[in-house]
Task: inverse folding
């Protein structure tokens, strides 16, 4: 197997990259400056060498504890629970949430054989029960999919015994959307969750 | 910039990979086995270290001369000219052509500022004029696009002074296609290039 074939095979393992795309990417890399290829290789090696899950929240980080968990200015009383680490970034980009995160590492999905024991739920309980902590609210920010919803319902049951607010992200019309393109279930949720107009 | 951000940036340089896809790929790599990440990095480094253009035909190879050029069983009298190195693979997979290749490294495209001097045309002339060679036919296998066609017409002019057959890949209906989906220009070309049915 030639180096180009080997690179094509490795690129073809990436999600959403089929055989033809892998070949196109490989030849793009071969044709371009070698420095670009080496820089991508270095970035990969750095990730393999340095990135690990934060022992507290499960988000990926290159330091002993992730930057959110070790930031004393973050509100230690609120934990936002997400399915996957990259969703932390989506919430951080919104720049609205100042609490902590907890990454489950997936969602309940019986069809895929993923049950509660496969998710980082024990870590969440440990954080809530930690005598040094004072968690007052857990926001369930799992996805608005069937599995995400089932995961939220399951977690709500697990957390019911604790003196906590357990909340869920609001359902509604995404900002910038036209109503005519929104499905009926979302409109029903948006109606159920309607709020008073604030005085201007 | 964190290692994940750096990897996302490098992946985002690949063609067809936008910011969101780059992020998704980066997290896929972070979440999977580290060995997969290292294997991709090794494949990249191997390509950067070992792959270079064949000094004869311009195809990429890891050896002094590419495997087609150094194969004495290939028909040395026919050179198939392609725009890009990856098109050599497309023709090789058809397993019909037994001659040699020549990679131009692009196509004439005045709008992109690519003229004859930017293509490996001098190398082709050198191969034809080489007293030790005996090239009898040059197949212009540039793409069936406007630029590919213009490149073929230009090359035909350059090669006119040499005692050579200069041929072009046939235009026609792709195998397996329904006529109703074929554009009129292709049908016109297929009619113009129609051939006698062979006796069975």
Result:
């Amino acid at each position: 197997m030639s180096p180009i074939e080997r690179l094509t095979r490795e690129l073809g393992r990436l999600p959403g990259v089929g055989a033809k795309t892998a070949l196109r990417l490989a030849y793009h890399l071969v044709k371009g400056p070698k420095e670009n290829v080496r820089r991508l290789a270095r970035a990969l090696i750095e990730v393999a060498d340095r990135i690990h899950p934060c022992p507290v929240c499960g988000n990926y980080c290159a330091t002993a504890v992730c930057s959110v968990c070790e930031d004393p200015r973050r509100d230690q009383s609120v934990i936002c629970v997400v399915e996957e680490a990259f969703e932390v970034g989506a919430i951080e980009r919104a720049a609205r949430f100042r609490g902590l995160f907890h990454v489950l590492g997936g969602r309940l999905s019986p069809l895929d054989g993923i049950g509660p024991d496969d998710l980082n739920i024990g870590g969440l309980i440990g954080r809530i029960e930690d005598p040094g902590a004072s968690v007052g609210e857990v926001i369930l920010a799992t996805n608005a999919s069937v599995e995400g919803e089932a995961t939220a319902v399951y977690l709500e049951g697990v957390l019911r015994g604790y003196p906590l607010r357990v909340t869920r992200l609001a359902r509604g019309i995404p900002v910038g959307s036209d109503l005519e393109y929104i499905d009926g279930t979302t409109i029903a949720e948006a109606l159920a969750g309607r709020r008073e107009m604030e005085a201007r």
Remarks:
- Chain A touches chain B through 45 residues (CB under 8 Å).
